[in-house]
Each structure stands twice: as C-alpha cells, then as structure tokens.
Amino acid sequence: MNNPALFTWITLCCWIIFICCWLALRNRTRENIQFRTNRQRWLAATGYVLIFTGLYLPLLTGARLLPAWWSLQATGVLLCIAGIGLCIWSRLLLGVNWSGGVAAKRDHELVTKGPYRVVRHPIYTGFLMALTGTSLVTGGGAAIVVTVVCALGLYLKITREETLLNELFPGAYAAYRQRTRKLIPFLL
C-alpha cells in the first residue's frame, strides 16, 4: 500500500526528534576555546530554516521531480530513520566535545568509539543520510538541491575540522585518519 502522507509524517517526526535532541544537548558541552559569533549562530539557524523549507517545499507546491514509487519512498524513510539515529547516537558519544562550529573545547578529547571507529564524521554521515531519505520521500527538486549543497558544505567544514583536530591531537589524529574514512565506511 502506498501512503505518501505517512512517509512524509515519519520523516518529519524524525527531524523533530533530531531538533529536540540538538536543543536539549546544545549547552551540555565544554567551554569553547574559540567562540562562535552571533552572526555565525544566526547564519546556522537561517541555514536550517532554508534546509527544511527546501526539503518539504514539494508538499506546498505539489511539484515532484522524482517518481512517487512506494519502494523509493520506503527506502527514503529507512534512510531518514537510520540517519537521524546515527546522528543522535554519534552526538551522545561525542558528548561534551561537540561544537556546532569548528571550535576547540577546553580539555578536548578525541572520540574514537561507536560509529567513530568506522567514520570520522558520523553525525554528518547520518545528516546526509536523513537529507537523502527525506528527498526521496518528498521528491522535489529543491530537496535534491538542498541535499547536494549541504553535502558540499559539510565536506568543506570537514576539511576545517580535520585541520583543527590534527593540531589538537598531533600524531593521534593522523593514526586515526589512517584507520577510518571521512563519511562513508570503506569508501570515502
């Protein structure tokens, strides 16, 4: 049975859970050594609004680029659920070391357990999985563009993060990079 509204609601609930977890955990971190400006915070918030608008725009316009096949939408729901689950698991493991921006924390620790044993940026992996899954469910061109732009933006952010982590953990981070991938296990 094909029920696109149910698939859409499931992805929306996943994103609501994601947002609630991020809001609940946002102040449970160590003190930043480098602080984010108010401008950076507002840009991040605006970015999220644009992301979610783009993801769910097809619901308002009715314009789908992708076919509304049950199998495609079911795959999208599974990707979204798995992606949000990976994001939350990774965020909980990162704990007090998490930062919304690229910033060092006081007494920063290198986390290498759980999904961090396989990929260095599992929150981004999960986020991209959830974006891709939601795009498959809503099927809009804007959702696909948002997913691609976010992937490119996160890839650039990873470069800055890896430079910082290499400075914070000389030798240890290089060894960690040798045995893990950036985003996709066994590939990238």
UniProtKB/TrEMBL annotation:
Gene3D superfamilies: 1.20.120.1630. The keyword Transmembrane applies. It is found in: Endomembrane system. The chain crosses the membrane at residues 6-25, 45-63, 69-89, 123-156. One of its GO terms (cellular component) is endomembrane system. Keywords: Membrane, Transmembrane, Transmembrane helix. This is Isoprenylcysteine carboxylmethyltransferase family protein. It comes from Chitinophaga oryzae.
